Amino acid sequence: DADVTQTPRNRITKTGKRIMLECSQTKGHDRMYWYRQDPGLGLQLIYYSFDVKDINKGEISDGYSVSRQAQAKFSLSLESAIPNQTALYFCATSGASSYNEQFFGPGTRLTVL
Amino acid sequence: QQQVKQSPQSLIVQKGGISIINCAYENTAFDYFPWYQQFPGKGPALLIAIRPDVSEKKEGRFTISFNKSAKQFSLHIMDSQPGDSATYFCAANTSSGGGADGLTFGKGTHLIIQP
Protein backbone atom coordinates (compact mmCIF):
# COMPACT_ATOMS: atom_id res chain seq x y z
CA ASP A 1 0.00 0.00 0.00
CA ALA A 2 1.14 3.53 -0.72
CA ASP A 3 2.57 5.49 2.19
CA VAL A 4 0.87 8.74 1.16
CA THR A 5 -2.58 8.56 -0.37
CA GLN A 6 -4.76 11.28 -1.81
CA THR A 7 -8.47 11.29 -2.56
CA PRO A 8 -9.98 11.91 -4.97
CA ARG A 9 -7.44 11.38 -7.74
CA ASN A 10 -9.46 13.40 -10.21
CA ARG A 11 -12.23 15.91 -9.66
CA ILE A 12 -14.20 18.18 -11.93
CA THR A 13 -16.29 20.87 -10.28
CA LYS A 14 -17.97 24.16 -11.04
CA THR A 15 -17.09 27.69 -10.08
CA GLY A 16 -18.32 28.57 -6.60
CA LYS A 17 -18.46 25.02 -5.27
CA ARG A 18 -16.74 23.95 -2.08
CA ILE A 19 -14.17 21.23 -2.58
CA MET A 20 -12.17 19.16 -0.12
CA LEU A 21 -9.07 17.19 -1.03
CA GLU A 22 -7.90 14.62 1.46
CA CYS A 23 -4.49 13.24 2.31
CA SER A 24 -3.59 10.31 4.53
CA GLN A 25 -0.18 8.90 5.43
CA THR A 26 1.10 5.79 7.12
CA LYS A 27 4.70 6.96 7.47
CA GLY A 28 4.21 8.25 11.00
CA HIS A 29 5.50 11.68 10.01
CA ASP A 30 4.56 14.79 11.93
CA ARG A 31 5.05 17.22 9.07
CA MET A 32 2.59 17.46 6.20
CA TYR A 33 2.38 19.80 3.23
CA TRP A 34 0.07 20.79 0.41
CA TYR A 35 1.56 21.90 -2.91
CA ARG A 36 0.03 23.05 -6.14
CA GLN A 37 1.63 22.22 -9.50
CA ASP A 38 0.90 24.17 -12.65
CA PRO A 39 2.57 23.44 -16.00
CA GLY A 40 5.83 25.34 -16.27
CA LEU A 41 5.59 26.71 -12.73
CA GLY A 42 6.94 23.90 -10.62
CA LEU A 43 5.42 23.22 -7.21
CA GLN A 44 4.22 26.01 -4.97
CA LEU A 45 3.59 25.58 -1.26
CA ILE A 46 0.01 26.25 -0.14
CA TYR A 47 0.02 25.23 3.55
CA TYR A 48 2.14 23.17 5.87
CA SER A 49 1.69 21.66 9.30
CA PHE A 50 4.34 20.72 11.84
CA ASP A 51 1.86 18.77 13.94
CA VAL A 52 -1.85 18.65 14.69
CA LYS A 53 -1.80 21.97 16.52
CA ASP A 54 0.53 23.89 14.21
CA ILE A 55 -0.57 25.03 10.76
CA ASN A 56 1.24 27.58 8.64
CA LYS A 57 0.53 29.43 5.42
CA GLY A 58 2.74 28.89 2.43
CA GLU A 59 3.42 31.20 -0.48
CA ILE A 60 0.01 30.83 -2.18
CA SER A 61 -2.54 30.25 0.61
CA ASP A 62 -5.18 32.73 -0.56
CA GLY A 63 -8.40 30.95 -1.50
CA TYR A 64 -7.45 27.79 0.39
CA SER A 65 -7.87 26.46 3.92
CA VAL A 66 -6.64 23.32 5.63
CA SER A 67 -7.51 21.03 8.49
CA ARG A 68 -5.18 18.65 10.30
CA GLN A 69 -7.63 16.16 11.73
CA ALA A 70 -4.98 13.80 13.08
CA GLN A 71 -1.28 13.15 12.70
CA ALA A 72 -2.02 11.04 9.66
CA LYS A 73 -4.63 13.25 7.96
CA PHE A 74 -4.36 16.66 6.35
CA SER A 75 -7.17 18.08 4.22
CA LEU A 76 -7.17 20.98 1.80
CA SER A 77 -10.36 22.93 1.10
CA LEU A 78 -11.33 25.36 -1.58
CA GLU A 79 -14.24 27.28 -0.07
CA SER A 80 -15.44 28.71 -3.38
CA ALA A 81 -13.57 27.22 -6.29
CA ILE A 82 -12.54 29.40 -9.21
CA PRO A 83 -11.18 28.36 -12.63
CA ASN A 84 -7.62 29.52 -11.94
CA GLN A 85 -7.47 26.94 -9.15
CA THR A 86 -7.45 24.26 -11.83
CA ALA A 87 -4.18 22.45 -11.15
CA LEU A 88 -2.52 19.31 -9.87
CA TYR A 89 -2.43 19.18 -6.08
CA PHE A 90 0.12 17.19 -4.11
CA CYS A 91 0.28 16.26 -0.47
CA ALA A 92 3.68 15.50 1.05
CA THR A 93 5.05 14.39 4.39
CA SER A 94 8.42 14.54 6.08
CA GLY A 95 10.02 13.34 9.25
CA ALA A 96 11.60 15.42 11.99
CA SER A 97 15.10 15.97 10.67
CA SER A 98 16.85 19.19 9.81
CA TYR A 99 16.98 18.23 6.16
CA ASN A 100 13.51 17.19 5.32
CA GLU A 101 13.18 14.64 2.55
CA GLN A 102 9.60 14.98 1.50
CA PHE A 103 7.48 12.05 0.38
CA PHE A 104 4.77 12.93 -2.09
CA GLY A 105 1.38 11.42 -2.74
CA PRO A 106 0.16 10.60 -6.26
CA GLY A 107 -1.65 13.90 -6.69
CA THR A 108 -5.20 15.09 -7.28
CA ARG A 109 -6.07 16.61 -10.64
CA LEU A 110 -8.68 19.31 -10.04
CA THR A 111 -10.58 21.03 -12.82
CA VAL A 112 -12.81 24.00 -12.05
CA LEU A 113 -15.20 24.87 -14.84
CA GLN B 1 10.34 36.72 -6.44
CA GLN B 2 11.52 33.35 -7.64
CA GLN B 3 14.13 32.09 -5.22
CA VAL B 4 15.27 29.06 -7.25
CA LYS B 5 15.78 29.49 -10.99
CA GLN B 6 16.05 26.33 -13.08
CA SER B 7 17.20 25.86 -16.66
CA PRO B 8 16.63 24.64 -19.26
CA GLN B 9 12.86 24.27 -19.32
CA SER B 10 13.17 21.27 -21.62
CA LEU B 11 16.06 19.12 -22.75
CA ILE B 12 16.52 16.40 -25.35
CA VAL B 13 19.55 14.12 -25.04
CA GLN B 14 20.59 11.09 -27.00
CA LYS B 15 20.83 7.76 -25.23
CA GLY B 16 24.24 7.41 -23.63
CA GLY B 17 24.82 11.15 -23.47
CA ILE B 18 25.15 13.44 -20.47
CA SER B 19 22.11 15.40 -19.29
CA ILE B 20 22.85 18.61 -17.41
CA ILE B 21 20.27 20.70 -15.56
CA ASN B 22 21.21 23.89 -13.76
CA CYS B 23 19.76 25.79 -10.82
CA ALA B 24 20.61 29.07 -9.15
CA TYR B 25 19.35 30.31 -5.82
CA GLU B 26 19.16 33.68 -4.12
CA ASN B 27 18.56 32.95 -0.45
CA THR B 28 21.92 32.45 1.27
CA ALA B 29 20.13 30.79 4.18
CA PHE B 30 19.40 27.75 2.02
CA ASP B 31 21.52 24.81 3.12
CA TYR B 32 19.85 21.77 1.63
CA PHE B 33 19.52 21.22 -2.10
CA PRO B 34 17.55 18.18 -3.28
CA TRP B 35 16.62 17.09 -6.76
CA TYR B 36 13.27 15.45 -7.36
CA GLN B 37 12.26 13.26 -10.29
CA GLN B 38 8.67 13.09 -11.47
CA PHE B 39 7.17 10.63 -13.94
CA PRO B 40 3.81 11.34 -15.62
CA GLY B 41 0.90 10.61 -13.30
CA LYS B 42 3.13 10.31 -10.25
CA GLY B 43 4.20 12.54 -7.43
CA PRO B 44 7.80 13.80 -7.28
CA ALA B 45 10.32 11.51 -5.62
CA LEU B 46 13.68 12.40 -4.12
CA LEU B 47 16.53 11.53 -6.46
CA ILE B 48 19.63 12.93 -4.77
CA ALA B 49 20.43 15.79 -2.39
CA ILE B 50 23.46 17.79 -1.29
CA ARG B 51 24.44 20.01 1.60
CA PRO B 52 26.79 22.97 1.06
CA ASP B 53 29.67 21.46 3.01
CA VAL B 54 30.60 19.42 -0.08
CA SER B 55 31.04 20.47 -3.70
CA GLU B 56 29.92 17.24 -5.31
CA LYS B 57 27.81 14.21 -4.52
CA LYS B 58 27.51 11.15 -6.71
CA GLU B 59 24.98 8.34 -6.59
CA GLY B 60 25.28 5.92 -9.46
CA ARG B 61 24.81 7.81 -12.72
CA PHE B 62 23.52 10.93 -10.94
CA THR B 63 25.84 13.67 -9.69
CA ILE B 64 25.13 17.00 -8.04
CA SER B 65 27.74 19.71 -8.42
CA PHE B 66 27.50 22.61 -5.98
CA ASN B 67 29.13 26.04 -6.20
CA LYS B 68 28.44 27.95 -3.01
CA SER B 69 30.14 31.20 -4.06
CA ALA B 70 28.14 31.34 -7.27
CA LYS B 71 24.97 30.13 -5.54
CA GLN B 72 24.50 27.50 -8.21
CA PHE B 73 24.02 23.76 -8.31
CA SER B 74 23.52 21.32 -11.12
CA LEU B 75 22.41 17.78 -11.81
CA HIS B 76 24.42 15.62 -14.19
CA ILE B 77 22.99 12.36 -15.50
CA MET B 78 25.71 10.23 -17.03
CA ASP B 79 25.00 7.59 -19.67
CA SER B 80 21.43 8.87 -19.96
CA GLN B 81 18.81 6.19 -20.61
CA PRO B 82 15.27 6.35 -22.01
CA GLY B 83 14.00 5.42 -18.54
CA ASP B 84 15.45 8.70 -17.26
CA SER B 85 12.88 10.60 -19.31
CA ALA B 86 10.94 12.57 -16.70
CA THR B 87 10.54 16.02 -15.24
CA TYR B 88 13.28 17.05 -12.83
CA PHE B 89 12.91 19.69 -10.14
CA CYS B 90 15.64 21.28 -8.13
CA ALA B 91 14.68 22.57 -4.71
CA ALA B 92 16.13 24.29 -1.69
CA ASN B 93 15.42 24.52 1.99
CA THR B 94 16.92 25.88 5.17
CA SER B 95 17.60 23.69 8.16
CA SER B 96 16.88 26.52 10.59
CA GLY B 97 13.74 25.87 12.56
CA GLY B 98 14.31 22.18 12.10
CA GLY B 99 13.96 22.37 8.36
CA ALA B 100 10.23 21.98 8.61
CA ASP B 101 9.35 24.70 6.15
CA GLY B 102 8.27 23.54 2.75
CA LEU B 103 10.76 23.23 -0.05
CA THR B 104 11.22 26.02 -2.58
CA PHE B 105 11.15 24.42 -6.01
CA GLY B 106 12.49 25.42 -9.40
CA LYS B 107 10.03 25.37 -12.29
CA GLY B 108 11.19 22.02 -13.59
CA THR B 109 12.99 20.57 -16.60
CA HIS B 110 11.26 18.17 -18.94
CA LEU B 111 13.96 15.71 -20.00
CA ILE B 112 13.58 13.41 -22.99
CA ILE B 113 16.19 10.75 -23.73
CA GLN B 114 16.01 9.65 -27.32
CA PRO B 115 16.85 6.00 -28.06
Main sheet makeup of chain A: 7 strands, mixed
The whole-number mean of residue pLDDT values of chain B reads 92
Q: Helical amount among residues of chain A, as a percent range?
A: under 10%
Instruction: Please tell me what the overall shape of chain A is.
Output: globular
* Pattern of helices and strands of chain B: EEEEEEEEEEE
Q: N- to C-terminal separation of chain A?
A: 33 Å
What fraction of the residues of chain B are assigned to beta strands by DSSP?
A: over 45%
Short summary:
The complex is a heterodimer of chains A (113) and B (115). Chain A is 0% helix and 57% strand.
Overall description:
The complex is a heterodimer of chains A (113) and B (115). Chain A contains no helices and eleven strands. Chain A is mostly beta strands. In chain A, the strands form two sheets. In chain A, strands 2, 4, 5, 6, 9, 10 and 11 form a seven-stranded mixed β-sheet that branches. Chain A has a four-stranded antiparallel β-sheet with strand order 1-3-8-7, with no helix packed on it. In chain A, strand 9 (87-94) and strand 10 form a beta hairpin. In chain B, strands 2, 4, 5, 9, 10 and 11 form a six-stranded mixed β-sheet that branches. Chain B has a five-stranded antiparallel β-sheet with strand order 1-3-8-7-6, with no helix packed on it. In chain B, strand 6 and strand 7 (62-67) form a beta hairpin. At the A-B interface, strand 4, strand 5, strand 9 and strand 10 of A face strand 5 and strand 10 of B.
Question: Which helices and strands occur, and which strands form pairs?
Answer:
The complex is a heterodimer of chains A (113) and B (115).
Chain A: E1 4-7, E2 10-13, E3 19-25, E4 31-38, E5 42-51, E6 54-57, E7 65-70, E8 73-78, E9 87-94, E10 103-104, E11 108-112
Parallel strand pairs in A: 2-11
Antiparallel strand pairs in A: 1-3, 3-8, 4-5, 4-9, 5-6, 7-8, 9-10, 9-11
Chain B: E1 4-7, E2 10-14, E3 19-25, E4 33-38, E5 45-50, E6 56-59, E7 62-67, E8 72-77, E9 86-92, E10 104-105, E11 109-114
Parallel strand pairs in B: 2-11
Antiparallel strand pairs in B: 1-3, 3-8, 4-5, 4-9, 6-7, 7-8, 9-10, 9-11
